[in-house]
Amino acid sequence: MELVNLHKEIGTAKDNRNSPVHDWYRFTAGFSHKLVDKIIREEKLTKDDVIYECFAGCGTTLVSAQKNGIHAVGNEGQELLYNVIRAKLNWDINKVEIVKHLLDIEYALESKVLIPYHQLLLTLYNEGDLFQLYSIRDYIALNIADEKKALFLNLALTQTLHKVSIHPIAIPYISRSKTLKNNLSALETFKHTALKMLDDLNFVDNKTKTTSIYLHDSREKNKNILDNSCSVCITSPPYLNNLDYGEVSKVCSHFFGITDSWSDITEKVRKNLVTGATTHYKESEFNMEQFKERDFYKVNTEVMDQLMPDILKIKEESKNRKGKKSFDILSLYYFEDMYKVLVEMRRVLKDDGKAYLVLGDSAPYGVFIDTTKILGEIAKNIGFKNYKIIKIRDRGTKWLSLRYRHSQKLSENILILE
Q1: What is the DSSP pairing of strand 410-417 with strand 349-360?
Q2: CB of 167 within 8 A of CB of 178?
Q3: What is the per-residue pLDDT for 395?
Q4: Domain boundaries, the chain
Q5: What is the pLDDT of residue 308?
Q6: What number does CATH give the domain 13-83+208-236?
């Protein structure tokens, strides 16, 4: 199968903003539902097939599969996003009862109760909105026992957190240099959001549930997914040195009590994610000689030996940089983690299965790392027969004018593993 006529934004989530259910949560690192739909069509997937998604994120692959009546299974390591996905996949919601809860919530907010706000959120919301946000959260927790309804309303509340903040909270990080103007209160925004979600359900009436999502780290074996049970994998792994996903989601995870501090993000979130940023590990704990003795290096010796001169260049370059970040160590951990993901991917895919990975390459401290090709070579070492790379677009061009940025040309690609 040839993936042709791909528009340049298909590796981004822009298309999802105008698609029912997909738009229920805007994720800074998503990709287009149109890519999933295209693969389903061109691979001629049927109800007998199963799609595997190892980085479910905000659920794009799973939602598209369910809209098309195709079975799919996925893993997501973050509890916050795991709950977002579960809400996006539950379409048998009693609309009358949701509307009743919205009325009850409005009445409940008339009585003021002292609420201990998280210090970070105090800097991101005005006092009236903050009271309403916390009051809605606590009403849902105390009064809605039905998990599907609670997930649905909590997702509407999560969207509200993004819409009524004083500063943008996920583009990808908190941007205090920008100020948002909000004409509606948190309560009004929450109600509008929930009602819009209810309207979206009209587009998926009579669609049955065909998907499963697990709170699971895709570097480890998921015993709920059988060997050789999936026809296709459609996913977008973390890009090397692109985002700290724990940091990106901290406002929402602090608000819902999943995390409370920087150390919480490390212990409860980062440890379940592929190493994609220097915040995910302690530089002092890394030992190169010990790293070379690990299974990953032994299985991929030729690939890593070819990469090592660039790793050493990055290490040398870091000595002249203000931050002195250990991008050399990050790169090694990243490829080791992705090796583990690919091993699990190969296990769950059928022998004639395929994997489609939306990926970007990287240039830490200006040293180009051909991430897509390296992962293709690693995949061959663990049992995939071949790989193909399709370029989607150039990326990173908006940073070229910055004084300390590199001038390396980067691209976003689709890595196809057979």
Answers
A1: antiparallel
A2: yes
A3: 84
A4: 13-83+208-236, 92-204, 277-418
A5: 98
A6: 3.40.50.150
